[in-house]
């Protein structure tokens, strides 16, 4: 079974409560298919979830920061293994409806699945500035997805530990701040 086959078997979480350790374990196994690290034993990992990590920044999604910890020898000692960001459709109906109507989620998923890899092939240095795409999925409204609307999930490397910060979309920036960001 390929990683693409596994992707179709994973239900897209509709909210933070759907982000279970088993769900994280599955998507991390998918992302590690091409990496040198392995997640072989779910008993060795735990997940620290920070909901609403982008609160007040003007995002039209739920931004969840997740720290993946790996047990280190001693059963009570864990060390940071990986940090990721999970983006779900917003829990507030007006923001969710806007994202669904304008297909913001699909546009961003397509960027990380198709455009970012092509860009980094053309300009390899861009790879050090783009989040690693870990996993993404879109589930249309079906019997298996009774949410009443499309659900989507985008999982990316968390760049905050590397010194990056969330752009506050509701803040006003000077031209100098924008130029330095670009």
Question: Topology, pairings included?
Answer:
Blueprint: H1 3-9, H2 21-31, E1 45-50, E2 61-71, E3 78-89, H3 93-102, H4 104-122, E4 133-139, E5 151-157, H5 175-181
Class computed from helices, strands and strand pairing: alpha+beta
Instruction: Give the H and E element order.
Output: HHEEEHHEEH
Strand content: 15-25%
Tell me, rounded to a whole number, the average pLDDT. 76
Low-confidence stretches: 1-7, 33-37
Number of strands: 5
Largest sheet: 5 strands, antiparallel
Termini gap: 41 Å
> Helical residue percent?
25-40%
Q: Rounded to an integer, what's the Rg over CA atoms?
A: 17 Å
Strand order of the largest sheet: 1-2-3-5-4
Q: State the helix count.
A: 5
Morphology: globular
